[in-house]
Amino acid sequence: MTIIYMLLAISVFVALIFFVLFIYSVKKGQYDDTYTPSVRMLFEDELVKDGSSPSAKKSTQNKTNPKTQTSQALE
């Protein structure tokens, strides 16, 4: 029965060590993402489907069909 108490104490001690190391690495900036903000503008935005804003309505009305663009280019 004493081995259970000893293993429990050791596991809590190890968990505390990992927690302290995690807090230390967060404070030192280990998990700061410096790459994603620089390429975020290259990611494609999702389309607005509800159409609640006037700019969203304009952007969906100005879109053309790719098939009509190629047929117009051939003429």
How would you describe this structure to a colleague?
The protein has helices at residues 2-27, 36-39, 54-61, 66-74. It is an all-alpha fold.
Task: From the structure above, extract its key features.
single chain, 75 residues, mainly alpha, elongated
Break the fold down into its secondary structure elements and pairings.
Layout: H1 2-27, H2 36-39, H3 54-61, H4 66-74
Short note summarizing the structure:
By secondary structure, the chain is an all-alpha fold.
Low-confidence stretches: none
Report the β-strand fraction as a percent range: under 5%
What structural class is derived from the secondary structure elements?
A: mainly alpha
Counted by DSSP, the helix tally is 4
N-to-C CA distance? 89 Å
Helical proportion? 55-70%
> What is the quaternary state of this protein?
single chain
Tally the beta strands. Answer: 0
Overall mean confidence score, pLDDT: 77
Order of helices and strands: HHHH
Largest sheet, in brief, is: none
Shape: elongated
Using only C-alpha atoms, the radius of gyration works out to 28 Å
